[in-house]
Amino acid sequence: MNDTYTQFLPEDGFSGTLIGRVWTTGTLAGPSPVWITESGVYDLSSIAPTTADLLNLPSLNASQWKDLPVIGTYEELATNTLNQDFAKPHFLSPFDLQCIKACGVTFAVSMLERVIEERAGGDASLAEDIRSKILDRIGSDISEMVPGSPAAIQLKEMLQSEGMWSQYLEVGIGPYAEVFTKSQPTSSVGLGAQIGVLSISEWNNPEPEIVLAVNARGQVLGATLGNDVNLRDIEGRSALLLGKAKDNNASCSLGPFIRLFDHTFSLADVRQAEVRVQVEGEADGFLLDDRSDMTQISRDVLDLVAQTYGDNHQYPDGFALFTGTLFAPTQDRDGVGQGFTHKVGDVVSISSAKLGKLQNTVVHSHEAPPWTFGISALMRNLAQRQLL
Fold first, then answer.
1. Which of 4, 101, 138, 375 has the highest Cβ tally under 10 A?
2. DSSP H/E element including 74
3. What is the spatial distance between Cα 219 and Cα 130, in angstroms, rounded to a whole number?
4. Which residues contact 309 (CB under 8 A, 6 or more apart)?
């Protein structure tokens, strides 16, 4: 197989159980959940019309899917996707009806960067000076702090007395995680798509994360990669602007595929995963290459699920849960002290050994294809295809 396409697969290729979504073509075109294998991409819509329905089945047994119709080969569909040949079958985001939730400030380093954003008020030029002052006061031992522990409470009291407390420290070392709605059902984009930042933002960055696939019963069935595109200047002005900073057209990328837990992949792999992010600047030749280490997360991923789902909040279609990132770029791009920000044309690649690679190109949100295929359109489409 062409190396161009193998790079988006996990390092062990088709060994695991890979679930995706494909826009099928023909007389009755529309999105279908699929199973990606070396022998072909199987259409699962006859057993589950959406990936939400698929993950809510009582059991998932891939050995029973081999008699289902094949849409094409992985290479054919990947070619169509990356060439944006939408007249042919192509991959979409693997999530459809699921709520798209996200946890923030789950790593100590990213927590401190959120504090810096807040104190800089969205001014990237002030960030380095504030960063030095905060680290001098707080120290580096905060990375060992267990959120909600007696030691964390004691640190909170000390910081409050010194006027150093922040809403980001509250969710970073306090008992409750930050859980917010990143994007709407059916709105996420997938492999090869454009991702959007607001044209009014002058300080923004990708957020490479592992995203959990959780069903209606609160069971974590697998994981994928995600880009929680972040506008640092807008969020830094006020936490009340979180929606404007996070939820915009094409601002949520997921994929390329959901890898289900089986004998090749487990929650232990998620907890030990390294997530790599690369940004290649089309306009200036800039290269950023960094990593996020899940072993350094402050809250266990199952704790994040428990703080999202429970007696107080249910998700009948399941949900995708961004687990946060250690990555917070400080590398100067345009000048000393100005830090990193995106430019139109940046190619962002997020990868992890067991989950493959998610690649997208940055544009302004108003220039990305508008989100027009919502839940009503999906229901009409499935009814026309006699899948409901």
1. 101
2. helix 74-82
3. 41
4. 214, 218, 315, 319
What the block records as the tokens of 184 is 């709407």
Furthest C-alpha separation in the chain = 67
C-beta separation of 124 from 131 below 8 A: no
User: CB neighbours of 256 closer than 8 A, spacing ≥ 6?
Assistant: 8, 20, 91, 94, 190, 191, 224, 225, 356, 357, 358
Q: pLDDT band at residue 197, thresholds of 50, 70 and 90?
A: very high
Which residue is listed with tokens 């998610």?
358
What residue has token string 């009503």? Answer: 376
Show the CA angle centred on residue 361, arms to residues 204 and 377, nearest 5°: 100
Q: Which pLDDT does position 323 carry in this prediction? A: 97
User: Please, which contacts does 49-52 make with residues 24 or more away whose CB atoms are closer than 8 Å?
Assistant: 49/382, 49/387, 49/388, 50/96, 50/97, 50/378, 50/382, 51/19, 51/21, 51/94, 51/95, 51/96, 51/97, 51/98, 51/258, 52/95, 52/96, 52/97, 52/98, 52/317, 52/318
Tokens 């290459």, residue located: 289
Q: How confident is the model at residue 109 (pLDDT cuts 50, 70, 90)?
A: low
Cα–Cα distance measured from residue 32 to residue 68, given in angstroms and rounded to the nearest whole number = 12
Q: What is the value of pTM for the model shown?
A: 0.91
Task: Look up residue 71 and give its two tokens.
Answer: 């849409």
Q: Is residue 34 over pLDDT 90? A: yes
